[in-house]
Amino acid sequence: MMPAAPGAAAAAETRRTGGTAHGARKTLTLPGWPVASILALYPLWWALGLGVLIFAVMAVPMLFLLVRRRAAGRPLRLPPGFLWWAIFLIAVVVSLGVLGADPPGTIAEHATGRLPGAAYKLIMYVALTVLLVYAGNLTEAELPRKRLVKYLGWLFVVTVAGGLLGMVAGNFQFTSPVELLLPHGVRGKGFVQSLVHPYAAQIMDLVGGDKPRPAAPWGYTNTWGNNFCLLAGWLVVAAWQSEKRSTRFWAVVCLLVSIVPAVVSLNRGLWIGLGVLIVYVAARYVLAGKIWIIGVLVMAAALLGLAMVATPLGQVVGARLDNGKSNGVRSFLVDRAVEGFRASPVIGYGGTRNTAGGRQSIAVGESAGCERCGNFTIGGNGQLWQLLYSHGAVGTAGYLGFFGYGLWRFRRDRSAIGVAGSAALVTSFSAMLWYNSLVTPLAFMVLTFALLWRNSSEGDKT
């Protein structure tokens, strides 16, 4: 059988897609603006009061565009190991059926009272799933990988700027336009405030006296620290790929300046995460035969040590290490999460629960004068504990299986994107012990996965 002539093949394709060949190509194209606008304009979304809500908002056009492209005849690719993620999503949905359960030692509440929080998490998980599939299906012509890396690097700069703002103006906050549109009874709720009310820092007493801890533009100090670790490597890759010396110079300046808010944040999880990040990247380069990285690390460690001795930063670190006020609470919550997992090991409880009282007594509770004395959130002290408690072994296996499979699948990618991406995922695994991932940390994790996925399939690795 002779192959069809090129003109005949094009005509047949035109008839199959219901339009001209040019029109069909336009229909099949995925624009890059939904992803680009989320990342490039995130400070604007934060100021408007949309913040993390922008991921759910932009998921709507992304889903529409994906469906339209599929309907036009162009197949959609699913990320490697997506079955694991599907298992996780199914577990999240199924576990909603036990929202009404009141485990021992928790505050009793009707399922309807817990439904808004659980529904919010489910919506965000679905929205980030759409982001994952959409970003992974974009081509180099639609959104180049280098540009996506630049957007992530830009957000590290935003994180550092937010950290500096939190240091010098810890009480800075304002009422956002979205907040103004909400009824007074709604906007005053603590959870709603965390979503729509922009502020620079969280004020906490950790080392004696209330001090600001950077949070902008991510809402919480712990989220700020988590995103710091997830985004730092992308700034380095963006600078590495740039042909402008000025870009590399300012990237180095940004990294040096970032040390100050990273230390002042008093965020031990951030410090551990950076250690994991550096050690992993160094190990990858040493295994690749680039022994010079050891000399760079020794020099960097010497400079950091000098900075700790010659500046007040060393005293800040020492004071934080000597004051582990949160250690007892974290141990208490880990124990309660493990107990809850043992009681409902398969599907968990569908969401978090608040403890009845505190560590010493059920009579101790949260109050205006002591917000951290009791009624702690079980599952609020780390993604791993939240997964075990809320979604049981099935949900936890699906979540860990997906990102673990990604690390294994892309382990041979020695490109800049490959090393930075896998380093970010490794860091996220360590952060699961003390940080929760929803929303922005998980968004950066799925974008990292999408970059690794595209890098492995598009060739000409960057």
SSE order and pairing:
Elements (H helix, E strand, L loop, with lengths): L5 H12 L3 H8 L4 H8 L1 H7 L4 H19 L10 H14 L15 H27 L7 H24 L8 H5 L2 H4 L2 H7 L4 E5 L4 E5 L6 H21 L3 H20 L3 H20 L4 H19 L2 H10 L2 H19 L9 E2 L22 E2 L4 H27 L6 H16 L8 H18 L5
Antiparallel strand pairs: 1-2, 3-4
InterPro entries: WaaL-like (IPR051533)
Keywords: Membrane, Transmembrane, Transmembrane helix
> Main sheet: which strands, in order across?
1-2
Count of individual helical segments: 20
Mean pLDDT, all residues: 86
Tell the overall outline: globular
- Report on the biggest sheet: 2 strands, antiparallel
InterPro entries: WaaL-like (IPR051533)
Biased composition (Low complexity): 1-12
Keywords: Membrane, Transmembrane, Transmembrane helix
Region (Disordered): 1-23
Structural notes for this entry:
With 462 residues, the protein is mainly alpha-helical. The protein has a domain of 323 residues. It contains 20 helices and four strands. The strands form two sheets. It has a two-stranded antiparallel sheet. A two-stranded antiparallel sheet has the order 3-4. Helix 6 packs antiparallel against helix 18. The N terminus is likely disordered.
Q: Can you describe this structure in just a few lines?
A:
Keywords: Membrane, Transmembrane, Transmembrane helix. The protein has 462 residues and is mainly alpha-helical. Helix content is 66%, strand content 3%.
